[in-house]
Write a structure and sequence with these properties.
Blueprint: H1 2-6, H2 16-69, E1 75-77, E2 87-89, E3 91-94, E4 97-102, E5 115-123, E6 130-138, H3 142-146, E7 149-154, E8 161-165, E9 175-190, E10 198-200, E11 211-218, E12 231-234, H4 245-252
Antiparallel strand pairs: 1-2, 3-4, 4-5, 5-6, 6-9, 7-8, 9-10, 9-11, 11-12
Length: 253
Amino acid sequence: MTARRNKKPAAAGVTLMELLVAVLLLSLLSVGMVITMRIALSAMNKTDSKLMANRRVLSVERILNEEISGIIPVTADCTGGGQRGPKVTFFHGEVQSMRLASTYSLHEGARGMPMILEFQVIPGEDNQGVRLVVNEQWYTGPRGAGALCVGMGADPVSGRPSPIFVPIQIGANSFVMSDRLAYCRFSFRDSRTRPQPFWVDHWVAAALPDAVRIDLAPLAPDSGRLQPVTLTIPVRVTRLPLVDYQEELAIGR
């Protein structure tokens, strides 16, 4: 009885080994949670990047469609050497450049003043692929547009007299429409040819083409993202810019 009364109860608590195991388990749990969050954030960033790239491609296609569909049948006074020259149709198309007047503007959408749009294909960064850029300036009338024409000369393709436009200048105000392209080419459908319209890559005619095609291809194809594709945009303007409106009505009758 005396021995039982003198025996002390065991002290309650944890050992150092148990504490180390608990800290280790908590550390492993924390590391697992951090890794899981990093994987989730990385997946979210990749998804967001793909969505933004897809939206950019769709936006470029929509803007190009609006700009070319909004073409205006206007004229320019070809003021070569500062002298007033003949009236010409203000539309000029080459394989890697195009100049036209449109109702659509990047800055003001379809609600602004008529704009002169200058499309040009230039080398990409570090000469990797090409990029499509566009310039915008106000269309102030035939005299203002004529300042872009340096005179009349022989067309290098047909040999007929045609306006000679100044080269498109790329500067700080040029907007990059599409970048990292393997190629970008313009072509124009000529409906005046019979019996079958065909595509040409040089346009200086008095009439407007009835469609514009823009051939695009990405520099680095990625099946996981929306890729730039060839666009064929109809031009629904049938009015002849160099023919008076009343005369055109009489011809139509």
